[in-house]
């Protein structure tokens, strides 16, 4: 057997593992996309809903990526800390987004100036003769 033949055999023998990893990653990608829309519709605020839906999808994508690295042969001592980091960061951001109340939007400058002028009596007593 030549060196090229042994290398080709190693590559061919690893193809089922790569196919399995791609299948896991593809399923995670589809699930993340499916989950994103219902989670986004759950919130009354469309901008906040889209953001929370995206973070839920990222959580699923990160879990799927960590699971897909297993069949390829990447050790769990590498994938578990990465997965833990993804879960902690995404979970913390989701908790902050869900628990935070939406802020009131500030008044535009013209309304703010008009209100302060009325409050402090600006413009009273000034008349053009």
Account of the protein in words:
By secondary structure, the chain is mainly alpha-helical. It is built from four helices and no strands. The chain has helices at 3-41, 46-72, 76-99, 109-119. The longest helix is centred in the N-terminal third of the chain and has 39 residues, at 3-41. The model has no long low-confidence stretch (mean pLDDT 80).
Task: Provide the descriptors you would attach to this structure in a database record.
single chain; 129 residues; mainly alpha
Give a short summary of the structure:
The protein has 129 residues and is mainly α. The chain is built from four helices and no strands.
Cα gyration radius (Å): 28 Å
- Give start-end ranges of low-pLDDT stretches: none
What can be said about the biggest beta sheet? none
| Oligomeric organization of the protein chains | single chain
Give helix % range.
over 70%
Shape: elongated
Mean of all residue-level pLDDT scores: 80
End-to-end distance: 110 Å
Q: How many distinct beta strands?
A: 0
Helix count equals 4
Order of helices and strands: HHHH
Overall SS class: mainly alpha
Beta-sheet strand percentage? Answer: under 5%
